[in-house]
Amino acid sequence: MQSWVNLQQVSVHWRAVHALEKVSLTLSAGERVALIGSNGSGKSTLLRVVHGLIAPTQGRVEYAASLRQAMLFQRPHLLRMSALNNMALGLWLDRQQRLTWAQALKAAWVALARVGLQDVARHNGRTLSGGQLQRLALARAWARQPQLLVLDEPTASLDPYAKREVEALIHSFSQNRPDVGLLFASHNLGQVKRLASRVVYLEQGRLLADLPVAEFFDSERLRAVSPKAQSFVQGELP
Amino acid sequence: MTSFSDSLQTAFSLILALDPALWAVVVRSLCVSATACTFACLLGFAVGAFWGVHRFRGRGLVIGVLNTLLALPSVVVGLVVYLLLSRSGPMGFLGWLFSFKAMVLAQTILLLPLVTALTRQIVQDAENVHGEQWTSLGAGPGLRAALLAWDERLALLTVAVTAFGRAIAEVGAVMIVGGNIDGFTRVMTTAIALETSKGDLPLALALGGVLLAVVGLLHALLAALRCAAVRWQASLAQPLTARFL
């Protein structure tokens, strides 16, 4: 399998705060990696390092040549204009596709229809519900044809119905393009079981466990690798 | 008290009678301040938005100086522009002193720190919350500044109105560089100062009333615009048929 991203001993420090501490991780094509850990464990920082939004204080990040990646944020931001224009803008900004505005608009219609949002295409982006917003952002990220999709708690602030819709979309997208890698942070262990092929556990910026999903949810195996991760999964917090 | 109420009565009659001398001063004031405000907003929005997004060495110092300039006294601006435009000054060849252009230049310089500093703060706040998302989509600092400024346009409209309010109410700069020449560079504030010193309180009060009314009208228009924008946004969320029923 081709390696998309390779993190070697990556640390991120903000003055006294050690957000990440010597994390090494390799992400390969088609892998669906879940990051779990308590709040402040460094999940979001790690996602941003992988996506190139944060430069590591120490260590190295190596990307495969011409890797295309997109990121979905917990609360996607849309400008005060129509959902269609927001979508088109996201596609027009993609330097690799180099679409004209007319082409971006056309692609935006297709992407909106794909996630069932064509009825709200002319609505102001600010009036969309949380679920619609996340679906739009997911469609926008997907329309950029990424090889690696980074998702920061994509269903964290959604109601159960919207959560299910967004998760189904992620699942359907990754089924259609099995070569695309997924790296997502989540607090929802059920979601991790359904979507991930591999689970990484972080605590206080340190990577304590990195196992295939079946092994991660095997109590004995996980306890042998990291008793702290096993306590977290069992809900036995210190 | 009688003198005050008499003055008020005369002031109202001057306004209602559309006194040509009074309205000439009012229109000139509006033109000077609106032009200066336009120039300051064009430049201040662009620079402020860019500084709100772009990180560069010495940015903290630049922002510190900019914030200090918020307290720039209008008479100091007037004095500096006077020295620049006077015959022996570096811009004396323009021959702008005691003209409409000189007053616009002075007010533009006065407003520029205000517009730039407020725009910088507004766009920086938006950048702190949403900037990484637009960076992730491929927007560089320039485009991010433009997108976030456009997104915060209602807040920037308030900045423009605040700047206009400062311009139309200031007296020091226009007095020094305009010279308060009757029928040429006399504006509301300089006229109020002159008429008060002459003892013509009704005209001074009438001008003061008009000045407040202009600013009040502007804020009412802004409020109406905000309401219309909110209603328009809400109407876009309705199904198309519901909007026309």
Structural description of this entry:
- The complex is a heterodimer of chains A (238) and B (245).
- In chain A, helix 2 runs parallel beside helix 4 and helix 4 packs parallel to helix 5.
- By secondary structure, chain A is of the alpha/beta class.
- In chain A, the strands form two sheets. A six-stranded mixed β-sheet of chain A has the order 5-6-7-3-8-9, with helices on both faces. Chain A has a three-stranded antiparallel β-sheet with strand order 2-1-4, with helices on one face.
- Chain B has one domain: MetI-like (MetI-like fold).
- Chain B has 245 residues and is mostly helical.
- In chain B, helix 1 crosses helix 10, helix 2 crosses helix 7 and helix 9 packs antiparallel against helix 10.
- Chains A and B meet through loops of A and helix 5, helix 6 and helix 10 of B.
What would a concise description of this structure say?
The complex is a heterodimer of chains A (238) and B (245). By secondary structure, chain A is an alpha/beta fold. Chain A is 38% helix and 26% strand.
Notable features of this structure?
heterodimer; A: 238 residues; alpha/beta; Rossmann fold; six-stranded mixed sheet; three-stranded antiparallel sheet; 26% strand; globular; B: 245 residues; mainly alpha; MetI-like fold; 80% helix; disordered C terminus
